[in-house]
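$ fold --in a.seq
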Amino acid sequence: MQQPSATDDPEIVYERHGDGQPVVLLHGGMAPREYWTPVLPHLDRYRAVVPQRPGFGTCRDDLAETSSDEVLPGEVDYVHALLDSLPDDANPVLFGHSFGALTAIEAATDLDVAAVVAYEPAVLPADYREDADLARRMADLVDAGQRREAVKRYVEQVLHPDGVDDLDAWLADWPVWPECVDLAEEVVRMNRAVERYELPERLDVDAPVLVLTGTDGPDFLRESARSVHGALPRSRFVELHGVSHSGPSEAPERVVAAVDAFLRE
């Protein structure tokens, strides 16, 4: 059953579904919290906590002035505030997708959580990051009044890097299109943050981490998932055959089965 937020902070907005150990679901950069709708029925053993990230429907008047260096720390602060609103004995799991996965890992460096699940964290390999210019190309299109084209560039590079026969037809069937066009500026800020993020040799996360990836996603994200796995002191790496970067919403039963097996241990 869906329940409203349990906090009085207007910037901390979330839904609760079910009972049990809380699993905090952090969505990525191209969809609001409704991204997790296909996943929720498979998390019936847990209490799913589904927040709305800053800039994706919450009241953040300062976002327009936010620099790319402040985006990830701001997301981490948001997770801290969210977990502070949960009961003291919550023992939460952080489950993030893409930029939400990177946020979950960074937040867990100084949070006491039971575990972290990271599906293809938004981390760029060093050689790929040097030439990355998606944020600039998107920003140019937004400035030119071509918001839809800006978001399409993101879809082409991140969701369909190998191309798709009829992108417009695919977008017409995409549940979050065209509403996600409203997120264009936030996605530009997020991409700038991703392009500047450098993976350290070691990520100081005490909690066990499950790093997930799919064989049909972008090669650079699969490479980065393995690098993140290697930088974590307590990590398991699982690759799902035939699944893309949209794994949690595309194959929720398989993804949750991997998560459930990990958490049971």
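$ fold --in b.seq
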Amino acid sequence: MPPRPLPRPLGTVTRGTTHRNRLRRQDRWIAAALGGALRAADDPAVVDLGYGAAPWTAVELLARLRAVAPRTEVTGVEIDPARVAAALPFERPGLRFLHGGFEVPLPGGRRPLLIRAANVLRQYAEDEVPAAWARLTSRLAPGGLLVEGTCDEIGRRHVWVALGPEGPRTVTFAARLGGLGRPSDLAERLPKALIHRNVPGEPVHAFLRDFDRAWASAAAYAPLGARQRWSAAVRELAADWPLVGGGRRGRPGEVTVGWAALAPRGR
């Protein structure tokens, strides 16, 4: 009897665009947010879902997480078998590559403490996002985190959502400040759940509008540098928006806000 064919992975093939250091801002945020949990975990498993045509994002994620949690293991999961085959020469202790999709097929029933899905859901319809989030978070280990978002081709502008099993928790905006005209320039990198909601009457539109106003109000700090101006704008923004840590935490060019404040109307 011939062997039964393996189930088809869940999802569709992405464009696969990838560059070295593209996800550095997100990697650093993950290391800060999850480093303690990875160090404490019996099985510090991490998945880089939909890493693309080259394995750089998984390779770099392992290096950055091992700097704070040396036992971390990263598995790159791709729905395109040719991309998996191309990545196999990069395997090393703590890094492997598997064929799969939203089912996150780690062997032995392992559940990852982190699933990172960068630039994966952008090609899906907005109404498909909640089901994808639910499926991915259902695969997490207790205390685990799903990080899903979108960035530009070289990682200068990035927005991501962090989710636990109960659903979305926060949204983080991160940018290289040199060349940033105003905070709302990040709107083009909103994740799929929010990008079509950047219109009057929606919370994310109001947030970016207020951020631009705070940025303009902080123009006097511009001679001191973009970092000082960003920090002043974030302090003003914190008066009206639930910023994580009141805007005092995070690196220059990064701000995190509670999801409930930005959630689309009617959801």
